[in-house]
Every structure is written in C-alpha cells, then in structure tokens.
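>> Question from a student workshop board

For tomorrow's exercise we were told to take the sequence and the ligand below, predict the bound structure, and bring the output to class. My setup keeps failing. Could a helper post the expected result so I can at least see what it should look like? The ligand is magnesium ion.
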Amino acid sequence: MRIVLVERRSPGEQSRLEELAALARTLDYKVAATLGQVRKPDPAYHIGKGKAGELADLVKSSGAERVIFSNQLTPSQTYKLSRLVGVEVVDRFQLILEIFAMRAGSPEAKLQVEYARLSYELPRIREQVRALMSVEQPGLMGGGEYEVDVRYDMVKRKLANLRRKLKSIAKTREQRRKLRHRRGFKLVALAGYTNSGKSTLLNALTAANAEVDDMYFTTLMPRTRAIRASRKVLLTDTVGFIDGLPPWLVEAFKATLEEIYLADLVVLIIDASDPIPELLRKFRTSREVLAEYPVRVVTALNKIDLISQEDLERKLNVLTISPPASCQFRLQKALI
Ligand SMILES: Nc1nc2c(ncn2[C@@H]2O[C@H](COP(=O)(O)OP(=O)(O)OP(=O)(O)O)[C@@H](O)[C@H]2O)c(=O)[nH]1
Ligand SMILES: [Mg+2]
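>> Workshop helper replied:
Here is what the output should look like for this input. Compare the format with yours to find the bug.
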C-alpha cells in the first residue's frame, strides 16, 4: 500500500519522520511522499488549512491510499482530514496498534493488544457523541446518540473484563518470578528501544531461538531462558521501548513490562549505530522509564561492528559509560 507521511513539529522540535517511516515499513507500506510543517497545532486539521489542501493534492498525485500522521490526532481532526484528502487518515498510535495486532501471536499478547485498542477507542466514542450532538438538530439526534452510547457502554464493559484477565496474567507471572527466585535464580531482563538487538543478544547468550528481524516490535512477549555460562541466571527478552508511549499502551503491557521492572538486573541495550542525538535521546528516555523502579541497570552498547572505533569512543564519552572492553566485562560480571 502506498502512503503519505505527515509530521507537524513545534519550532526546535526534532523530526521523527525516519522512525515513522520505519514503523510504516514494518507493515509493508511504501512511502510515496512525505509532508512536514513547523507550526503549533491547528484545531481543525492539526496542520494548517493551506497545508491540508497541499496534502490533498499530494495524495492525489502520488496515488496514496492512506495518510499517516506522526502526531496524535483528535477524532474530529482525523475525520475532517479524511474528508478533505479522500483517503483514510491515521496517527502514529493507530499505526503502532496495528503493528502490535500483527505481531501478537500468543493469547496473552492478543489480550494486551485488544486492551490497548479499546483504550484508544473509548475517548473517541465519547467525542463521537459530542460531534453528533453539535451537528444534529435537537429532537433528531436521539437515534445516533443512543447507538454511540450503547457502543460506549459495551467497550467499557469489555475493558473491565480484559482488565480482570490481564490482572490474573500479571499474577501468574509474579508467581513464576517468585518460584524462580526460590529456586535460586537471578533474573536479568534485556530492555531497550525496539530494534536495538535484544533478541539477538538473548540468542547469543542462551539457547533461545527468538525471532530476530530488522523491523519494529518483532518481540511482543517476554521470553526467558537460562544463560549458557551460568546455571543460576535467567535472561528475559521483552517488548521494546518507543518514544512517547501513551499511558494506556503502557497499562495494557503492564504484565509484560513488569518482567523488566521487577528483575534483579536490567541490561539496557543501546544501538550504537544511531546518530548521537538519537542515541542520547533513547538512552535518556530509557533511563527515565527505568528510574521509576528500584532496579539496577547496566548499559550495553550493541551493533558496535557498524561503527568506527573513533565513533564508538565519542559515543561512549557522550554516554559517560566505560569503554567497550570494560563494558563487556561489566556485562559478564553482572551476569555470572
Ligand atoms: N550489525 C549488527 N546488527 C545487529 C546486532 N545486533 C542485532 N542486529 C540486527 O538488528 C536487528 C534487530 O535485532 P533484534 O534482535 O530483532 O532487535 P530487538 O531489540 O529484539 O527488536 P524488537 O524485538 O523488534 O524490539 C536485526 O536485523 C539484527 O540482525 C549487532 O551487534 N550488529
Ligand atoms: Mg526482539
């Protein structure tokens, strides 16, 4: 499917178009064109009215079938934009949800994705009620409003039901962790941005046969394996981080993320082939996310074969962590 990517940025804000393109590629989309604008969000179209017109022309001339915004859109912006450009318009979160839905293999992953999808939908249904009330004549709005109300209640009930199931999954995971601790295992979790190489490292250190791919969110569910070098350490690979995860997505994946937060040690995998600003941003965001929990973190630079020695040293300086040899050493020491 051919798509157009759109990004609105505030002055001074870093572009995330490259990441959006990578997310789109994960769904096998072909980027036909991109459009950017620096301004504050417009209430109607998110981008300016003139730019929205330009987008409509671009969609036509490029033959795109979908438009993907890097920014979060309100339901009414999505609706107005779709009407204007004549094809479906979605935002980055909808795209992430679709990738999650595609990747969700296990029943547990499916539950988490369904919970995230409905949490995303709920406020949108609310807004539909408001839109209906403002557009329709009093007295005539009864039917539509009623339907949306019924849907709203249904989604709320489904969410409550899913929440119960997810709680029980979290409990099972907790019991399993306790059992492993009782058996004398130390639990080490691999954390880091998606595509940083967590599963590759898990495969290298254990006999796991985790799927590895140059795409985002290849891994959605945790996988725990014993480390070859030691009988007493279990390594867990889990879902990757991405910028600006909304709270509802984090809540949906709570049971999975707890494998990271409640481990004895986290090895934070950083993709050393990222340019310095991106590397720093990902490093800081990851540390911030992890700082909310009292878990020890060791940082490991990955993909160092893709960069020169000078580049590596520069990046290590920026991150103010030890040089590669001792980084490796720290990692080994931590694991054994
Ligand atoms: N050159 C190089 N490539 C690597 C290295 N480690 C991983 N890769 C590649 O990076 C890509 C992502 O690796 P994964 O192990 O799937 O990354 P991940 O962190 O598990 O990603 P998600 O599960 O999608 O969050 C794959 O194409 C790997 O082959 C490395 O040390 N060097
Ligand atoms: Mg993975």
